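EI: anyone free to look at a 606-residue chain?
SC: sure, send it
EI:
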Amino acid sequence: MRVLTKSPQHILKSVFGYDAFRPLQDECIRDVLKKKDNLLVMPTGGGKSLCYQIPGLIFDGLTIVVSPLIALMQDQVSQLKALGVDAVMLNSSLTWDEYDRNKALVLSGQTKLLYLAPETLVKDDIQHMLCEISVDCIAIDEAHCISEWGHDFRPEYRQLKSLRKNFPDAVYLAMTATATPRVRLDIVSNLGLQVKEPLIASFNRENLYYEVIPKSSPSLQTLDFLKRFKHQSGIIYCFSRKQVDALTAELNQHGYKALSYHAGLPDDVRSRNQEMFIRDDVQIMVATIAFGMGINKPNVRFVIHFDLPKNLESYYQETGRAGRDNLPAHCLLLFGYGDIRKIRYFIDQKESDDEKRVSQTQLNAMIHYAEAEACRRTPLMNYFGETYTRKTCGQCDNCLNPKEVNFDLTEAAKKFLETVLKTGERFGASHVIDVIRGSRSQKVLSYFHEQLDVHGIGREYSAKQWQFLVRQFIQRQLLYKEPEYGVLKLNANSNKVLKNELEAQGYAPPAEKEKVVSRVKKELVIEDYDAVLFDILRKKRKQLADSQGIPPYIIFPDKSLIEMSATLPQNKDSFSTIFGVGQKKLEDYGDAFLGIIQAYSQARHK
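SC: here you go
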């Protein structure tokens, strides 16, 4: 596509079909066009890609996009081609003929955007080819991969700094959805970016509803949750491959269309499963963390964490795959203390003490989020260096369904603190719980703790219930927990409790066999549109997408179909005002969708 006007605002509407820029997009685009390097930190679904795609259509030369995954490149190129934009990729998914054809398009100047992986970009033959043409912009997506402190470290990204000498006139734009202040500094340093102040959008995804419930019967809790999301797309993350396969089988037995995704599956099976999910052939993807980076499926309506993530960066990135269309979506975390032990076991296997400390700090932040009693967004935003000032967000379980503080913790605290004291303040919660519940485990016997007078004084609570109580003791500062090894020690408040000088209120531990279920907000249901027409349009979209071999959202996202179903446009002028309808989409699909809407409107008014 050769753009007739070089106005970013005109391209935004005529090519992409959007009426207005989102926060920071306009500012970033202006900086790129002025050839000012930048680091853009913007949440998933915030519109990072437009910040290099629009300049790419304005620049005379080539825009190179560095991307870590073939699936992400394929998705971006398919979407751009559907918009009439000349874009190609170079990667191992292409045949030799396709690869040579794409290189020829780059050399002839017929393409505006070139997508490739970092290891491909630094190859000698690719460098020689690119040195023959004008390169105006190098956009580095998923830039957190360059940092060892990031959650998806890719050593190949470190080689990108060397590009400066071959393309001194190109502007460099690094982009990521998740970066703590430390990771941001690492990105700027490792890429040699000339950046005064990175552009950092709010990490708050206002359309996401966050909920954490105690994990009791995880499969039943998941099935109960899914009843509210019939025929809607979602992702379920599990800790292990075995759990992924078991849950997938169980969901299919209950009538859901679900597929597995993990590193133990053959490449072709993973690729096929991912393709079926993206194309709406299956409803649910059950996966390990191997799935999802760069998946641009806008209509994911829920993400379930069946197991506890190891850090808040992973959690934020994974929940960020829901609601990329900015429509309401639900993020559910099943929180079980057994998961903490599993993660700690893997942390203990790390060779470096520094790695262990970093991983333990990250895990502690994750636990702090899961146990938060106030707004979920506060610890989540704080972790990324952003201050969340609102007292209630209206979009999390703690704000909408606050728990009642009506349980006297004092007697339980006395028993537990006395046990911590008499075992020498040398152990973590698990051992102290074993002693207080009267266990005769090998560890208890080896320290002769079965001989203590506190042995067995807390049999009224199960181990899980004691864990629930201990977390509250720590949160209310009745007990100190060393951050590195988890050793419990008394503090000033502990002594006051033991001397009957301090009482504490908290939450009652859940009944041992109680199944806590998700409480889905009514507002999560997207209303104010004709659901019958929406379903007809969705089927037409699926038919067209299958005939072209592309995912349905490349034709139109759900947001566009919802707007069509709400406003019922009757001609091309009104259809062109719909979200996501640019010139090419109007030409390619206007007649098909308008025909359905017009016929439906006439039938309804007869």
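EI: The longest helix spans residues 583-604.
SC: 👍
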